[in-house]
Automatic annotation (TrEMBL):
Name this polypeptide is given: phosphoglucomutase (alpha-D-glucose-1,6-bisphosphate-dependent)
InterPro entries xref list: A-D-PHexomutase_a/b/a-I/II/III, A-D-PHexomutase_a/b/a-II, A-D-PHexomutase_a/b/a-III, Alpha-D-phosphohexomutase_SF, Phosphoglucosamine_mutase
EC number: 5.4.2.2
Species: Zea mays
GO molecular function, one term: phosphoglucomutase activity
Catalyzed reactions per annotation: alpha-D-glucose 1-phosphate = alpha-D-glucose 6-phosphate
Domain Alpha-D-phosphohexomutase alpha/beta/alpha span(s) in chain numbering: 87-195, 199-298
Superkingdom of the organism of origin: Eukaryota
Pfam families to which the protein is assigned, alphabetical: PGM_PMM_II, PGM_PMM_III
Gene Ontology biological process terms from the UniProt entry: carbohydrate metabolic process
Enzyme class: isomerase
Amino acid sequence: MPCNACVSLVNYYVRIGVACMQMTASHLPYTRNGLKFFTKRGGLTSGDVENICDRAAHKYVARKTGVGGGGRGTPPVVMRVDLMSAYAQHLRDIIKQRVAHPTHYDTPLRGFKVVVNAGNGCGGFFTWDVLEKLGADTTGSLHLEPDGRFPNHIPNPEDATAMSLTRGAVLAQGADLGVVFDTDVDRSGVVDAGGAAINGDRLIALMSAIVLGEHPGTMVVTDARASDGLTRFVESRGGRHCLYRVGYRNVIDKGVQLNADGVETHLMMETTGHGALKENYFLDDGAYMVVKIIIEMVRMKLAGVEGGVGSLIRDLQEPAESVLLRMDVMGEPKDAKERATHAVEAFKNYIQEDKLFGWVLDDCGDCSVAEGCLMDTNNDPIDVDAHMYRAKLYDENQRAVGMVHIRQSVHNPNIALNMQSYAPGGCKSMAKDLLERFLLASGLNGFLDISQVEKFVQ
C-alpha cells in the first residue's frame, strides 16, 4: 500500500526543541510526495528550503568527487522512536488539563459522541489514540485505515463528498461533533450536532470566537478570499482582521511577522482549512485545531450552554453566493508563470485606468498591506510567490454587488477567480462583466482558456 503522508507530529517535535521533516503528498496522488521542514520557529519558508536543497546538492557533489570535505565521516546514530504515541499523549494531556473535568478528569469526553472521517489518510489515530482513550464514543467513524489510493473520496475538508458523508454519519449517530481531516492532518473541518458543515469562513469564525475568548483584541490573519461577513464577525467580538495573500505559508508567516512587530496575533487561518496558532508554535496542525474545538465543546456543556459549538457562529453573515472558476494558461509550460502574471496585472491596470467602470481595488485589511494583497509596505516584506488582487464591483447606485479575488496559481498553470456576491445572481453579473469588458476586450482569451467563465454566464 503506498504511503501517502505521515501525521502532523511536528507539534511534538518542536515542543521538545528539535527540528523535524514530514513526507507528504497531502490530498494529491501518492506519486507527488514532497518534504516539509519545521523548527521551533515554525515551518520553513521557500527560501529556507531552497538553501537546504543547495547545501544537500553541494554535499552530494562533494561526496561523489571527493572534493570539498564531503567525506562520509562518522556515521549518524539512528534511533527508532514511537513518536505517534507521544504525540497522541500530548493531545490527550492538553484536553484533560484545559477541560479539568470536575468528576472524571482522565475521561473528559465520556458521554460525548464524535465521528471522525479520516478519508483513508492518516487521521485515524485521532479516533483510537485520542478520542476513545478520553472516553468518547466514536461509533460511525469513517475511512480510518490509511490508503493512499483514496478509494472513498478525496481526504479534504473542502470536498463535498467528504463533508456530505460526515454530515450523514453525525445525524445518523446523534453525534455531538463530526471531524474531517485531510490526508496529512494539517487541515481539518468539523460538522456540528445539527449537521451543519463548518469549513471555510465558518471554521475561521468558529476558531476566532474561541481564540478571542482567550485573547481579547487579538489580530486574526486570513487569506484575502475571506468574506466581508467574516471581517464583521471578528470585529464584533473585539478582534481585528488582517486579510493577506492566498497561500497558507503566506498567512502564517504574516502572523509571525506581526507578532515580531508587536501586534498580538494568535490565529492565522486560510479558507482551505489550514490553521496555525501562536500557542502551538505557528504550526498548521489540523489535529490541534480540532482539540481546541473539542475543549470548547466540553466547556460549553459543563457550563450548561445549549446549541454546541455551532451556536458560536450563528450571527456570521455569509455571502449570498460563492463561486470558484479557473482559467488554464495555454501554450508552452515554461511561459505559463509569466503569462499568468501578465493577466493578473492587466486586471489591476484595467481598473486603475477606468476601463472597468464600477470596479474598485480593495486594500485587503489594516496590517500594512497595499497593492491589493500583492506586497508589504513595512521594512521587512515577505516575498511574493504569486500575483493576486481583490476588487469589488458597485452598481450604478453605488451599491456593492460583490467581490472577486483573482490570482495566479503557485503550483499549476492556471488563474483562479474566487467570486462572492451579496445578492442572488451577483456572481453571474460579475463574471459577465469580467468576460465582456476585460477578458475579451483585453485579448487575454488568446492564451487563457476562458471556457469555464463562458459556461457560467450562459
